[in-house]
Specification:
Blueprint: H1 4-17, E1 20-21, H2 22-32, H3 39-48, E2 52-61, E3 67-75
Antiparallel strand pairs: 1-3, 2-3
Length: 76
């Protein structure tokens, strides 16, 4: 599997920090790993890994007074 190392990193992060949103996981991986990951690849990892489950959706505020929905992920 192409992103096996990053999958393990994400699972350890979620076990240590509890449920986290996609943006927090993206920032963690890109700060910790020298090569990082693109957002579409991260979304594929999160949605297709059987150990990681989507918990719920949460509305967060963006830069210019707009808000959007983001997925909260947890380890099953």
């Amino acid at each position: 599997m192409k992103y096996k190392r990053i999958q393990k990193m994400i699972i350890k992060y979620l076990e240590a920090n509890g449920p986290s949103n996609t943006r927090e996981i993206y920032e963690y991986v890109n700060n910790k790993d020298a090569n990082g990951i693109q957002s579409h690849a991260l979304n594929n990892i999160l949605s297709k890994n059987p150990n990681i489950k989507a918990s719920h959706m949460e509305r967060i505020k963006g830069f210019s007074d707009n808000s959007y929905m983001i997925t909260i992920w947890k380890v099953d």
